[in-house]
Design brief:
By secondary structure, the protein is an alpha/beta fold. It is 41% helix and 14% strand.
Length: 268
């Protein structure tokens, strides 16, 4: 599984330090400038259309990924038609997951994110204006209320995106899943779209401030009908197995094949 070989060690660690001058001179200043510019732009555009404002986040993420010399490969987009709303569930390897998903997924979605991010200037303001969903993880009642309110946002093909692990993995290993996203999918009657991310832990490991060039792979899998499972734990296990099977060890390209699971919703 990606990350188990110790990202950021050996030759990878050397390449990270060789890339450090570019990070200090280009990437960090660009993070500040683009976050301020696109954050303000998104906040203004959201007064007209949240859908339009969402594209500011796409531009922000795409620019930062390109500046970091990070290549993002997405497979399986045809499994998630734009007119269908989904509950998107994906693993969380590192900070560059955000750039890969926002910059390259090519669909409208609203993120479920921790409430602390709301306080970040420009970034938090833009996320709130666009309609992303803030959850107070220290208050279970408030968290449930936030997820319940999210249902109203999921119309006309807008999806909701959740990291079911609840936090990023420190070593690339898949953590246990929390049930919130699965309960939401069953309550709203929406298909679950499993997504596997590979490679972001090698680009920027936890507690590291210096990314290195690399490839992040995002694999979309066939949607899963949450109502086809009588038992919530069986649904969680099936989706987790699908996501785990799609996580690739770092290495050369062959594109991942979407992993098949039973009880699929036809793409149309």
């Amino acid at each position: 599984m990606a990350g188990t070989s110790g990202p950021g060690t050996g030759g990878r660690g050397l390449s990270r330090w060789l890339f450090a001058p570019w990070t200090l001179a280009i990437i960090w200043p660009l993070v500040i400038v683009t976050t301020v510019f696109w954050g303000l732009t998104a906040t203004l555009l959201a007064t007209v259309s949240q859908r339009l404002a969402h594209h500011c986040g796409t531009a922000w993420a795409w620019l930062l990924a390109r500046a970091s010399l990070v290549r993002v490969v997405v497979t399986g987009r045809e499994l998630a038609p734009a007119g269908q709303s989904f509950v998107i569930l994906t693993n969380h390897q590192g900070a560059y997951d955000i750039l890969a998903l926002y910059g390259y997924l090519r669909r409208q979605f609203r993120w479920v994110m921790k409430a602390e991010l709301r306080r970040i200037p420009f970034l938090g303001w833009a996320c709130q204006a666009i309609g992303h969903i803030f959850v107070d993880r220290g208050n279970s009642r408030a968290a449930v209320a936030s997820l319940d309110a999210a249902g109203a946002k999921l119309q006309d093909g807008v999806a909701v995106l959740i990291f079911p692990e609840g936090t990023r993995s420190v070593d690339g290993r898949l953590l246990p899943f929390k049930k919130g996203g699965f309960v939401m999918a069953r309550q709203l009657g929406l298909p679950i779209l499993p997504v596997s991310i590979s490679g972001s832990a090698q680009v920027l490991p936890p507690r590291c401030l210096f990314p290195r060039p690399g490839t992040i792979r995002v694999a979309l899998h066939p949607p899963v009908d949450p109502m086809a499972f009588d038992d919530l734990s069986a649904l969680m296990a099936a989706v987790r197995e699908t996501i785990a099977a799609g996580i690739r060890d770092p290495g050369p390209d062959p594109s991942p094949e979407p992993h098949q699971v039973p009880h699929q919703v036809p793409p149309d």
